[in-house]
Specification:
Residues 185-214 are annotated as: Disordered. This protein has 234 residues and is an alpha+beta fold. It has six helices and seven strands. The protein is globular. 32% of the residues are buried.
Length: 234
């Protein structure tokens, strides 16, 4: 089977960073894409993404070492050839019979396109950063370099475990403290939470330890960050 995956190690930054001009619209569009995918693929645990400025600062300082553990590096806003590759990869790994391969590849590669649809992700931070995967290293069948114009980090998932949840009605497998909003899992409103019995405790807690800096160097991102910083010197 034709492979549509590639390592982050071949990627370099080629332009100065910039801010996302309209975070609200950017996030709204991405969440609509996640909702549409959840309905089409019958994903019962697709969470709505919320913007996290801390993740933005983490990208700017190249200080994340959580890839594959509690976060994922996500390249977005692809130009034509990278966008074609993303669509091919999503199509190639769509369906129950491809789920095992998707999870296996997810733990080895940057999953162009599929990263956007990882069900368990809840937060995102992005900057404008042009990133290039050289023409000489793109998969067969693609004739130009892959170019993305946005660099993001999504949390809290790093290993693709949320893909293991069996298919079902969108929004039917939301975690404690979340409810279905037309196919996306969103936090229960404060007014609804206040009506819960006093002895009912939520299991959806917040870890006070930063998910971006705990533990030792981890996998592809730690190596790729070094390479990316070197690339930016030239």
């Amino acid at each position: 089977m034709k492979s549509f995956v590639f390592l982050l190690l071949a990627i370099c930054h080629v332009a100065a960073d910039s801010v996302i001009a309209n975070k609200e619209e950017y996030l709204k569009e991405l969440n609509e894409e996640r909702r549409t995918y959840a309905k089409k693929a019958r994903i019962p645990n697709m969470y709505k993404l919320f913007w996290d400025n801390y993740l933005v600062e983490t990208i700017k300082t190249n200080s994340a070492n959580c890839h594959g553990k509690t976060c994922r590096t996500v390249l977005r806003s692809p130009e034509a050839e990278a966008n074609k590759h993303a669509q091919d990869l999503v199509k190639d790994l769509f369906g129950d019979d491809k789920r095992t391969k998707l999870i296996g590849d997810y733990n080895k590669f940057h999953m162009n396109g599929n990263e956007d649809f990882t069900p368990g992700q809840k937060k995102i931070g992005c900057i404008g950063r042009q990133t290039v995967h050289g023409k000489d290293t793109v998969p067969k069948g693609y004739n130009q370099a892959f170019v993305w114009n946005t660099y993001c980090i999504m949390t809290p998932e790093g290993n693709g475990e949320s893909w293991r949840v069996p298919r079902g009605d969108p929004g039917s497998a939301c975690g404690q403290g979340y409810e279905n909003d037309d196919g996306l899992c969103v936090p229960v409103s404060k007014s609804e939470s206040a009506q819960k019995p006093a002895n009912q405790k939520s299991t959806d807690t917040t870890d006070t330890t930063s998910p971006l800096t705990d533990g030792a160097s981890h996998g592809l991102l730690d190596v790729s960050l070094v390479i990316l910083m070197i690339c930016r010197l030239f």
